[in-house]
Predict the 3D structure of the following.
Amino acid sequence: MTPEAAAAARPRVEGDREQEILDAALEVLAEHGYDRLTMDAVAQRAKASKATLYRRWNSKAKLVVESLARMKTTPEELPDTGDLRTDLMTAFCGMGGLTDHDTTSTFGAVITAVTTDPEFAAEFRTQVVGPKSQVSRTLFERARDRGELRADIDLDIIVPALSGIVLHRVFVLGERPDAALIERAIDQIILPAVRPQV
Amino acid sequence: MTPEAAAAARPRVEGDREQEILDAALEVLAEHGYDRLTMDAVAQRAKASKATLYRRWNSKAKLVVESLARMKTTPEELPDTGDLRTDLMTAFCGMGGLTDHDTTSTFGAVITAVTTDPEFAAEFRTQVVGPKSQVSRTLFERARDRGELRADIDLDIIVPALSGIVLHRVFVLGERPDAALIERAIDQIILPAVRPQV
């Protein structure tokens, strides 16, 4: 058998099948949390063999991080309405935003693992949190360029604040992250904190 | 045997022994997270029998919530320096505050369980989060009475914001919660957000 023929004969995981397995991983994750997720359970949910999963992802950390990274976390087009308040509402209340139940469930499911498993934490921060933070940063940088922010603003602390405030209310206080909650946090905290002092 | 003699003969869990078991539970929790904590592991760490643990706590949820609720989470005396900034720094940087490594480790260890186990979540919110929130609320109410806050302040959203901002940076972004971080969050976000607009 030629190497090409051998490669063609080897079962592969790609395209739609790959997406089905990643979706199954997200479902199992949301139901059981990272620590109790097993490759067996994901294989069963996706109606695939465990061997198939391991051919593509050599650990559950890699499978879970990839499934999270592929989630539709930002609108295709970043909002750019010329107004920070509207941009933030659009980004945070859209698909993959914090009012999206799937997003917050899966996020909650990995937080303990992030605190107890340094390897998983590093992958999660690079591949999942990094791109999300960059979206928020871009919105604030545009607002700064338009003169909406005070001169001594510290973007490193302001940019992730809204996520922190909302996620804390969802996970620690047990609230639903609806648009009204995001709006209160923007109007009561973020905008008063960033606007130029007269 | 009289009922009194029977009670005296029955092994009990109290005083120092109880505290040792609760301390062991916190240690196991910080190391493994709630989902992977077992009564066996806590019993072994505390050099107690599993039966002893079950005589006092009929589930791991009850044992863990009680161990968290007993942690020294607030200074004996609530800070009351006449200045919101100093009060917040004192409360958040003290023992049981967010710069205390034990506090944040154990907190991270239960977050996934809070999102996946409604019974545990309810106990955790009532017995652990509630008393902590009340401390912050008192500091802000005193500041409002001193005229430090703007008139239209929404305390329900402001009070938990600092915890949310800091915990998010610790668990999601992977930072250490030192006094400098708490200070930046207070000076860049909380104080500008609450002070009266001129």
Chain B has a mean pLDDT of 86. Chain B touches chain A through 48 residues (CB under 8 Å). Residues 118-145 of chain B form the longest helix (28 residues).
